[in-house]
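Q: How would the structure tokens look for this protein?
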Amino acid sequence: MKAARTTEHSERVLLVGIARGGRAHTFRERLAPDEQPLSELRELARSAGAQVTGTVEQRRERIDPATVVGRGKLEEIKAEACVRQAPLLIFDCNLTPVQQRNIEAATGCRVIDRTQLILDIFARHARSREGMLQVELAQLNYLLPRLAGRGVELSRLGAGIGTRGPGEQKLETDRRRIRDRIRKIREGIEKVRRQRAVRRQARQAVPLGTVALVGYTNAGKSTLFNALTGAEVYISPQMFATLDPTVRSVRLPSNRKVLLSDTVGFISDLPPGLIAAFRATLEEVQEAALVLHVTDISNPRHAEQDAEVEKVLAELGVNDRPRIHVYNKIDRLAADVRASLHAGNANVFVSALEGSGLDELLQGIDEALPVDRLRRLRLRIPLSEGRTLALVHGLGRVIQAETRDSQMWLEAELPESLVRRLDPRFIQRGAEELTAAAARTFDQD
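A: Here is the predicted structure in token form.
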């Protein structure tokens, strides 16, 4: 397991929550009263490196089109920010460019909304060229309509939460040049998508089942991925710690191998531009033969989080894909609650941290994927056929191996799909001949 990265100097922020009166409209507005105080926004802010100094909340029948909260509430927010010494306000909603400018003018504070905060976290965690391109595209699409009238504010970019990414020089250019940059980024992402498609085709040429981990952010997908594969994918309690998909092989109880991919976490009210920008990443989910929906069962709001994941899966068109629901973090539950859990055909309860329930999960994956019958063969493969030897060792179980005259003599169990791809000249005996030979040996004994 890789150690968590060091956190930069924290910026003091004040959180502002808005809830509409009457019927709840979003998952965050449906929370119980004791769960309402901006818990998710607080975690997002901390993941962005912020020090949350306080919160201000307001319930309104209608959102004020100019300032969201109204002039009176803005005075209260301004005073609270002054007392808390918080130069940055984070609103738990999406602001229009006009609303953002009006709030900044009235309070004298920098203002970002929920989308810009998520974009900042994505920019902080993106490591691959693909991830950085996708984040920059989403940032530029978000900031393009917000350029008018922001000449002074843009000079402050690059030194705080919500300012990470494209930077001052790109954003001070005119709209035409920014659109040109967006076009070039899209071309770069399309090139990455084609490269990923080639790699995917190469993987598909070797007949392995593919399994994708999906779930709400911070559900423990990367910890589960590491526990199943022995990999060292970066894990962190911060939200959106994983942006770049990672693929590793896993051996199932039947001795088959499958490919498991770790993907970016989902979140409620995920901006549509982010889903579009990360299309290349999410294609791993669309190409998977089986989806593992990972849920943090210790989170009191896991049912609402699951509903948000279902929405994104529907948008990706994989709602009807074979699926196993993996309830993770059972180690955080009380002993009596753990004892009452009953796994079903499509439900598995695990603790990726402790390693409990992983055998049952692997068995469930084995049963859910199409059967690829194992055949026991005796093979004779020239040592010059390095790729074929690697496939036999990688995808099968080698029982005996011996080198004779520049050739490798093997007895192995191989998936039927791999056997069909082997050069027939390499196959010396099939399973029936081996069984008969074993019987003759037994009779002689």
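The mean pLDDT is 79.

The chain has four domains: 11-112, 126-188, 207-368, 374-444.

Upvote if useful.
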